[in-house]
Amino acid sequence: MSYVKQFLLFASLVFLTACSEITDDLKPSSSDQREDVVDGSIGNMPGQILSDFTIIDTENNDFTLSEHLNGGTTPADVIVLYFTMWCPVCLSHTDHIHNFIIPQFSGRGTVVYALVDYVSGSVSITRASAEANGYSNSVFTILADEDQQLFDQLNAAMGSVVVIDNDGTILLNEDYRTGTALAEILELQLP
Asked: Which of 61, 90, 109, 133 is 20 to 30 A removed from 35 (C-alpha atoms)?
C-alpha cells in the first residue's frame, strides 16, 4: 500500500474518532427521542389539537376540518387522512383501507376517509390521478394539497395516516404499514 493510501486511511480514522458525537444517531435506541407532547396543545403529534385547515377536493369543494368536527355542518366521529402520491406502495395501502378497513367499520359511526394527494400540484391532475387509479367515484374524499400546506402542517410523509377525533385531537400520525394501528384506533373511537 502506498504512503498516500496509508495516510488517507489514517486521516479518515482520526476524523471519524474525533466526531464521536455524530455517530450517536447510528446507535439504535428503544427510547422515544421526541419532545414531550402536552395534551390539548396545538401541533401535529398524537394528543395535540390540529389547527383548522381548508383544502380543495377533486369536485372543487372546500374541505374544512372544523366543518367535520363537533358543532360543524357535517360532523364525523373520526377523520382519516391518508397521504398518497399514487405510487405502488400508496395504492397498496389505499386498497387495504378500501377493501378491509372500511368494510370492517361500516355502520359504526361516521368516518370521513380522505386521500390527500400532495404531489400532483393541481386539482385537475389530482382528479386525473384518482380516476386513473380507480378512486374517483369511491367512498374516499380526494383532497388536492396543491402547495403541500397540510402535508407540512402534519409533518407527513408518503404513506402517512392521520386520524383526528371529533374534537380535533390527533389520535394517530404515523406511517400506514399494515393498517393495524388505524384499525385499533377506529375500534376504540367508533360506537
From this structure: 90
